Request: fold
Amino acid sequence: MKTAAEPLDAIRTPWRIPPFRRFVSAGLISAAGSAMAPLALAYSVSEQGGGAGSLGLVLATNTLPTIVFLLIGGVFADRLSRSRILFLGNLLAAAAQGALAVTVATGHATTLSVAACGLISGTAASFIVPAVQGAVAQLVPQEHLQQANALLRLPGNAVKVLAPVVGGLVVAASGAAWALAWDALTFVIAAFLLLTLPLDAPPTPATGVLADLRAGWTGFWSRTWLWTYTAAGAVLVAAWLAGFQLLGPLVAARDYAGARDWGLIQAAFSGGLLAGTLVCLRWKPYRLLTVAIATAGALALPLAALAAALPLPVVLAAALLAGVGLDVAIVAWSTAFQQHVPQEEQGRMSAFNGVGERLAIPLGYLITALATHAWPSRTVLLACAALIAAATALNLCVPDVHRVNRARA
Reply:
């Protein structure tokens, strides 16, 4: 593939590749809606009188389909056109968010109906995620992968800085339905931007789905750095989401100023994501996987700050640092994955990683919701922070992760 002006091997920045610019634009538009969705979802449940149990059920049903269908999505991503998969997946997500917006606006939303829409959204994500993981490596040359991964996150992270604040104001002034409707519209626009991207199916042998899965599992298990990273990620992701998404809004409603302050905390976290992206545009660490693991451990900071009921400025600073750490971790991990996993296996390897990291999420939500009946929310938040720190430390003790470094140009 070439641009109109110069071949790929002469390009100094991936931003000069038109299909990559369109890919980034689709992500930006989708992020403009998705950044408001968690806040709108949390307060749509809250408006019905639901507490931690109801929100935990909703969040768990959003995650369950990714566990069930993500492996199939990974096989499809290694067999079919990734642009077609991204198009259909975004349309399905738009339908789910649109239906949710209608039920909330008409006053017919229940915990069951919200959970059903989340089930559909999760199904869409199970096909989108593996296709996205392999798409960047198809659009840009290997030496520009880290810069491309950072540029891909830059516009979306910039939007996320303001979107939670705007979302908090929209939810407070007009209710959650408007934020959810906007999210649905952005999915539709992104779908059509992605439809004609040059993301043809990777060359793969003509085997069956089960054979592809068996081969994928063999490849996944043979890479110690990959399955140990996934195992640690299962604990870290579950603890982070249960603490931040489930308990965070509830603690903000009780100990802080509700939707307004929670919107500020989310904005601080998003500001950290943006700052982390800027760091990745300049800093190119050699030990990619080691950096990814270590920086992700910063997610424990805002949970610990909320657990200690520290003043809002301290919580905002902790959320900012967590965002920086997470974005550096994501870019470093994506680059390591794309450089050390062959293109024809990236869909399935991404799917196994995604399933592994998500396996504990529904259980984490439900256990956390039940734990709040026995212990104060602050105690449960502190436990989540401790789990993140422990998972990070143990993963850094695996020798193989320190061998997954930047490929020499």
Summary: Residues 1-5 have pLDDT under 50 and may be disordered.
